[in-house]
Design brief:
With 342 residues, the protein is of the alpha/beta class. It has ten helices and 15 strands. Strands 3, 4, 5, 8, 9, 10, 11, 12 and 13 form a nine-stranded mixed beta sheet that branches. A hairpin with a 2-residue loop joins β14 and β15. α3 crosses α9. The longest helix has 21 residues. The chain starts with a strand and ends with a helix.
């Protein structure tokens, strides 16, 4: 009996994690990752990797929590194994601070050691803020994690192919199921006008004395005003969240604002050396994250597609849970005769 063929389009953290999960759930399928760009040149690679629900517009809370819990548990287990350093996954402890009191987040029981910061502690550390949380979560550095997952995928027989896809119709007849993990480009490939770019710019600096994370969300939903994330080899400063801005060149005005905000909160950063600046486009979807199957029609051509896109700023935070659900949809599609779907 001929083996099923599955194409995963997109090689960011969503695409590679989905491909790995398809292999686990569909051992009778040959899986290929198709992408124009691979690590270290994906949008995921530039993200700091901080695991906390962020910019997840339009997605039901129960779905966000389910995907978050699954991803957190997957990464926690990875931290406790010998591959933790290679995969770029580690715990991070630190603060979210606010100008006023906000409700507790619904994810507070899923992270480690969540507590409200006492007023005295807040005044010692962040005197210009009125309220805050302290907790331990996870940092997943994609420039290490994606190659780690890709190696795992290839060792299990997966194929990686550089190819620019302009339409899923190009893949008709070549694959039984196509998995769409193209992020913001789903606006065009999936004909989805609800997908919009949210431009993010960050700065990497050398500041080995910074050991904790610090975030100043604008509200309890996690909308970012500034952040400082200590990573393995650098500290990431950010950021921006500019909706409908498509340019990916570093903006000197944004750089100046990011730098001044960070230094105003942590003056010691003034001595930090800037290593790199980066811009990426978060794939925000007003209708919420899309993990579902669809038969797409291109004239007389029909292509079975499983979508997994629209993660906003929470691609890393939710990637494993979403990948598990997408893989289940692929399994269902492969077990359903094409004629029953058309």
């Amino acid at each position: 009996m001929a083996r099923h063929k599955v194409a995963v389009v997109g090689a960011g953290i969503i695409g590679v994690a989905t491909a790995v999960n398809i292999q686990a759930l569909c051992p009778d399928a040959d899986v290929t990752i198709l992408a124009e760009k691979f690590s270290p040149d994906t949008t995921s690679d530039g993200a700091a990797g901080f695991v906390q629900p962020y910019l997840v517009v339009g997605t039901p809370d129960e779905d966000v929590m389910r995907w978050f819990v699954s991803t957190f548990e997957h990464l926690r287990k990875l931290i406790l194994c010998v591959n933790a350093g290679k995969s770029g996954v580690h715990f991070t402890s630190g603060y979210n601070v606010f100008k006023h009191k906000v409700p507790d987040p619904n994810w507070k029981d899923e992270v480690i050691g969540f507590r409200i910061i006492p007023e005295k502690e807040l005044q010692l550390l962040f005197p210009s803020f009125k309220y805050g949380w302290f907790f331990t979560t996870i940092m997943c550095e994609s420039h290490r994690y994606i190659p780690y997952l890709t190696e795992r995928f290839q060792k299990n027989g997966g194929v990686v192919m550089q190819r620019r896809i302009s339409s899923f119709a190009e893949l008709s007849g070549q694959y039984d199921v196509v998995v769409n993990c193209t992020g913001v480009w789903s606006r065009f490939l999936a004909n989805d006008d609800s997908v919009r770019p949210v431009r993010g710019q960050v700065m990497r600096v050398s500041a080995s004395w910074i050991k904790t994370h610090g975030r100043c969300p604008g509200s309890a939903d996690g909308t970012d005003k500034y952040h400082v994330y200590a990573r393995q080899d650098d500290v990431t400063l950010g950021g921006t969240a500019q909706v409908d801005r498509w340019d990916t060149e570093v903006d000197p005005k944004d750089s100046k604002e990011i730098w001044e905000r960070a230094v105003s909160i942590l003056p010691s950063l003034k001595e930090a050396k800037i290593l790199k600046q980066w811009v990426g486009l978060r794939p925000q979807r007003s209708k919420g994250i899309r993990v579902e199957a669809e038969t797409m029609n291109f004239g007389t051509t029909k292509v079975r597609v499983v979508h997994n896109y629209g993660h906003g700023g929470a691609g890393i935070t939710l990637h494993w849970g979403c990948a598990e659900d997408a893989a289940k949809l692929v399994q269902k599609e492969l077990s359903t005769p094409p004629q029953a779907r058309l």
